[in-house]
Amino acid sequence: MPYAHITGWGMAVPEQILTNDDLSKMVDTNDEWIRDRTGIRERRIVRENESTATLALGASLKALKVANLRPTDLDLIICSSSSPEYIFPATACLVQDQIGATKAGAFDLLAACSGFIYATNMAAQAIRSGSIKNALVIGSETLSRFVNWKDRNTCILFGDGAGAFILQASERPGGVYSAVMHSDGSGGDLLTLQGGGSKHPATEATIHQGKHFIEMDGKEVFRFATRVMAQATREALDAAGISLEEVDWIVPHQANIRIIEAAARGLKMPMDKFVVNLERYGNTSTASIPIAAVEAVEKGDIKSGDKLVMVGFGAGLTWGALTAEWTGPFPSKGHVHPEQYLIFGRVRSFVRRAIRFIEGIIFRREL
Ligand code: UT7
Predict the structure, then answer these.
(1) φ, ψ at 150 (rounded to 5°)
(2) Which of the residues 208, 271, 279, 298 has an alpha carbon 20 to 30 A from that of 341?
(3) What is the pLDDT of residue 363?
(4) For residue 198, how far is its CA from the centre of ligand 1 (angstroms)?
(5) How far, in Å, is the centroid of ligand 1 from the Cα of 194?
(6) 80 ligand 1 Cβ < 6 A
(7) Candidate CATH numbers 1.20.1250.20, 3.40.47.10, 3.40.50.12780, 3.30.200.20; the one for domain 3-325
């Protein structure tokens, strides 16, 4: 049975920074409260010309470059997001088109902040079953587009960004070893974005009622998170037969430093084993785990051969954890320049649209 190795990684965050002081001019809050209660100092916010798909594309191109993998070699693209470009088509398909991943299947996955764990597990399972060889897994969010900038309970928390992994098959042991995924829909009302779905399609009334904004019972989500982080980590480690002592890094969902500290206490692990970067990005939901992992790899903290656990929780409620041994790129010849595939992707997309247009005229005549 092949193993699913993580051979490429990339991240993309908007340039625009929103600091706690900036927020204090918008709502009744202050830098000290936000830092004490969350650990966040600043977050990145998209500009008008940026979106979930542009961030996803940026992270994906970097991941392909690290893996030295041509987009045309991808079999599967999964984009995890709670703030997709559209309800449909899937953001994954937009990325597929732009990078010219001609033979990849593509779909979006929604498991809120646990989404990247779910998506990586799905891709790893497809590789381990032997049905595919190469997958691109993306976590991308622009939650700033759904935040009520007058609600101090939520607007201080979230930021925008994307991270991506390339997963590849190899007979050599390593890569993703195990994962656990959990849900409890009875807590669905604790963290919601109700507007725009089939129950509350956009109307003047839903906009007036603020249904297109994130609503959260922060205290309850906090309580739930502190309960499940350590528990899911232990479960995933048990499933992989790895002991806590063997773990080099825990990459937790970056929601609140106090939640991460509670997980460290629960696992009796020192905080320096936890990858933390939420002070600079806030909570980027499904993108937070890959962004934290990418930064830790680029800093030289996570190295080839390291054993790590990624663990997250979020709306749904959902939670999960995944264990992996970090691999790094497979040895390969030549250099792939994925940006060149953008040009190829654009030309291909244009030609396909043109063919569809011409076929449409012919088909109409035949009728
Ligand atoms: O990815 C999953 C997404 N969600 C989360 O992870 C959120 C989990 N929850 C949390 O991180 C925390 O519950 C929050 C950071 C959201 C809130 O922290 P807290 O320690 O639970 O604060 P609280 O809601 O109990 O509020 C304490 C006080 C209240 O004032 P009173 O009633 O004690 O007078 C709030 O009104 O702090 C007040 N408060 C604020 N003050 C200044 C709430 N938000 C703010 C604020 N600035 N932004």
Answers:
(1) -105, 0
(2) 298
(3) 79
(4) 30
(5) 21
(6) no
(7) 3.40.47.10
Convert the pLDDT of each residue in 61-88 to its tens digit. 999 999 999 999 999 999 999 999 999 9
E strands, the chain, in order: 3-12, 17-19, 42-44, 76-80, 105-109, 134-141, 161-170, 175-183, 191-192, 215-216, 249-252, 307-314, 318-325
Please report, for the chain, the start and end positions of each structural domain, with discontinuous segments joined by +: 3-325
* pTM for the predicted model, two decimal places: 0.96
Distance, in Å, from the CA atom of 98 to the CA atom of 148, rounded to the nearest integer, reads 31
Question: Are the C-beta atoms of 302 and 250 separated by less than 8 Å?
Answer: no
Angle at 65 between CA 127 and CA 299, to 5 degrees: 95
Which positions of the chain have pLDDT values less than 50?
none
Q: How far apart are the C-alpha atoms of 138 and 9, rounded to whole Å? A: 10
Q: Which uninterrupted H or E stretch holds 332?
A: none
Strand pairing partners for 324? 176, 308
Please give the Cα distance from 35 to 29 (Å, whole number): 11
261 lines ligand 1 (CB under 6 A): no
Measuring CA to CA, which residue among 191, 250, 228 is closest to residue 313?
Answer: 228
Coil, helix or strand at residue 76: strand
Question: Annotated active-site positions, please?
Answer: 113, 253, 283
